[in-house]
């Protein structure tokens, strides 16, 4: 970040800076620079905001004003016109500044793209056009581990009723993706609905130790009406499945990977600055500066090497996935399964690296770095909380079975 942008960083946190005054990004490199600017804005008071746990309205406003929300949207409507590999890297960069906001942005990209996952061509165009032009911020209430939301077919309309224990993005979202099963059938229906309506009640009960600003509490859905025409992927109430429809898990798992790696980068960068400026050498070590302590130098070198390797694998797998996105109808079950194995491998690596880095920073910064006001524990709390989403052992098992027997993971709704 150049010095000329420092005043902008401070002003942007208070809503007083206009991103429109900056050149509009057009290339992946320029969009990454924009993401780094957002990171700088978020990290200024990340510890304080984590402690407060307040609804991140201002942070989502920064994502909108910066243009990151419409990164995947059509250029004609003011979007970035970019692809998933860049969206993953942008998510990683934002998460380095604030893990919660990185998760919110990554999930937003997932749900923005969901029209392409299951929608008809007409629905895809309509959703992406309106979402981009109006800068919709997406949330989702589709946790498959809960009981299915029940949908009643009332002729021209579908009516959703049920509860979900998680609804990431709830209060800060403009629209929410719902998923349920039509009563008396096994037909699953996705739909995008306004987040603020009488039929949706957010419980505001997210009280976990990490990812505290993700608005991930429970939700009650009671009488939300959706026209059949808005049922994603349906024509005349009939759904035509494609192998591409099963790509939801590989995509969301790469979202996880990238905000885990972003949190790890944030932890290491924050700790390194503290080590350079504040950490004292051990009194019996014979060194005058903490930056000369052999165990500290070795620690940063080891963790950074592992993080760089994980980032490189994440980028390679994202590039492989983009080839699938470019020709969705060509995706075979074999190719989809082999890709999910690669995603499982990087998920296992990213989880281990992020947990190790966010824990080890305390050994590299010293006892005084445990002060609550610094909030260095938030990095570990954030990774630890979300990495329990699904057992990483099952990801390693997917890789092991493929290596030993050639068995491919079966598509599921969850993981």
From TrEMBL:
Keywords: Flavoprotein, Oxidoreductase. The keyword Transcription does not apply. Residues 255-389 form the Acyl-CoA dehydrogenase C-terminal domain. The keyword Transport does not apply. InterPro entries: Acyl-CoA_DH_C, Acyl-CoA_Oxase/DH_mid-dom_sf, AcylCo_DH-like_C, AcylCoA_DH/ox_N_sf, AcylCoA_DH/oxidase_NM_dom_sf. It holds the Pfam family Acyl-CoA_dh_2. This is Alkylation response protein AidB-like acyl-CoA dehydrogenase. It comes from Actinomycetospora corticicola. The lineage of its organism: Bacteria, Bacillati, Actinomycetota, Actinomycetes, Pseudonocardiales.
């Amino acid at each position: 970040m150049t010095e000329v942008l420092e005043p902008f960083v401070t002003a942007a946190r208070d809503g007083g800076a206009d991103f429109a005054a900056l050149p509009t990004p057009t290339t992946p490199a320029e969009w990454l620079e924009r993401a780094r600017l957002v990171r700088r804005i978020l990290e200024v008071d990340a510890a304080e905001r984590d402690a407060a746990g307040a609804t991140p309205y201002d942070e989502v406003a920064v994502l909108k004003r910066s243009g990151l929300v419409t990164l995947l949207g059509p250029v004609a409507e003011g979007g970035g016109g970019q692809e998933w590999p860049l969206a993953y890297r942008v998510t990683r960069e934002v998460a380095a500044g604030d893990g919660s906001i990185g998760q919110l942005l990554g999930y937003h990209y997932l749900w923005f793209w969901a029209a392409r996952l299951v929608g008809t061509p007409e629905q895809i165009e309509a959703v992406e056009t309106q979402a981009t032009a109006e800068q919709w911020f997406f949330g989702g209430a589709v946790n498959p581990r809960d009981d299915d939301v029940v949908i009643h077919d009332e002729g021209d309309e579908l009516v959703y009723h049920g509860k979900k224990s998680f609804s990431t993005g709830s209060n800060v979202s403009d629209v929410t993706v719902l998923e349920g099963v039509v009563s008396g059938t096994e037909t699953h229906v996705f739909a995008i609905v306004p987040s603020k309506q009488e039929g949706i009640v957010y419980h505001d009960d997210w009280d976990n130790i990490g990812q505290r600003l993700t608005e991930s509490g429970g939700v009650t859905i009671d009488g939300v009406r959706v026209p059949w025409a808005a049922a994603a992927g349906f024509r005349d109430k009939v759904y035509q499945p494609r192998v591409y429809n099963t790509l939801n898990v590989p995509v969301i798992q790469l979202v996880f990977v990238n905000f885990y790696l972003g949190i790890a980068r944030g932890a290491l960068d924050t700790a390194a600055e503290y080590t350079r400026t504040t950490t004292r050498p051990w009194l019996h070590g014979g060194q005058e500066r903490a930056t000369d302590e052999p165990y500290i130098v070795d620690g940063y070198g080891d963790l950074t090497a592992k993080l760089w390797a994980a980032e490189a694998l994440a980028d390679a797998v994202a590039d492989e996935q983009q080839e699938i996105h470019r020709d969705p109808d060509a995706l075979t079950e074999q190719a989809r399964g082999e890709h999910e194995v690669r995603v499982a491998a990087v998920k296992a690596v990213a989880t281990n690296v992020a947990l190790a880095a966010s824990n080890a920073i305390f050994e590299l910064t010293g006892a005084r770095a445990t002060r609550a006001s610094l909030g260095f524990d938030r990095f570990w709390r954030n990774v630890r909380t979300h990495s329990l989403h699904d057992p990483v052992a099952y990801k390693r098992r997917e890789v092991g079975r493929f290596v030993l027997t050639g068995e491919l993971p079966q598509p599921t709704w969850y993981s």
